[in-house]
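User: My instructor asked us to take a sequence, write out its structure as tokens, and then describe one feature of it. I'm not sure where to start. Here is the sequence I was given:
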Amino acid sequence: MPQIAYRTVRSRRKFAEAPKVRLMLADAMRAEVAPHYTKEFKKVIANWEHKPEFKTRFFTHNPDIIKVDIRPVGVNKKYWIWTSRGTKRHDIPVGDKGYLAFQLGYKPKTKYRGQYGGPGKATGEWVRTTKTIDHPGTKARESEEVIAEEELPWFRRTMENIWRRTIRAL
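Assistant: Let's start with the prediction itself. The structure tokens for your sequence are:
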């Protein structure tokens, strides 16, 4: 997510107070930027069966920086993390039934680098095994990076407008 830095702004021959400007910017970002990005994240999961919720948080670690953080939350957040960031090679143990059954040839709903397919489905034959499976891992689909790249022009325009409104309001 792009970062915004600001300093004391001179407007109408007055010096704006930095805390007041920061509050005005944060309020405008809460009203415009956060809902827009949340909507973009929800587009990715539109056809998912186990949809995570998203929570927006604002951070001001430094008096000159406001960060917006949008994260998956809830019981289904693991699906977002696995899909967007990928998984490492791992073993899938056999369950209580004594065997593991799965279908080959799965085509995912979301694809690498933000290409969103239709509903995911497995097209291959069913396989049943009594052994532990060595899963090769999942390639990261990098949804956050794709959204940030695609929405950068919108973000720049919106932040310029927010700045203009903030300066006029001083």
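For the description part of your assignment, you could build on this observation: The first strand starts at residue 4 and ends at 5. Try explaining in your own words what that tells you about the chain.
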